[in-house]
Specification:
The protein contains no helices and 5 strands. The protein is an all-beta fold.
Amino acid sequence: MAIIQRGSKVRLSGDSADLWIADYNVRVDSLATVEEDPQKYAKKLMVTIDSIDGDHNVLAYVRRSRAIPAEED
């Protein structure tokens, strides 16, 4: 399993409420970039979401357990 750290790409998929994203009420299916190294037991990650509800490069905290490491080519 890939380690999530600053600069890692993760896939976010699901309802924004399940991902703990505030200020949006939409279905999310997007890549995001992790902006900070998460603490060992942190429940949230700070990420920049590529696209959500027509907005691009949105900085938000998301639920760590729902962030899936993206495949690196």
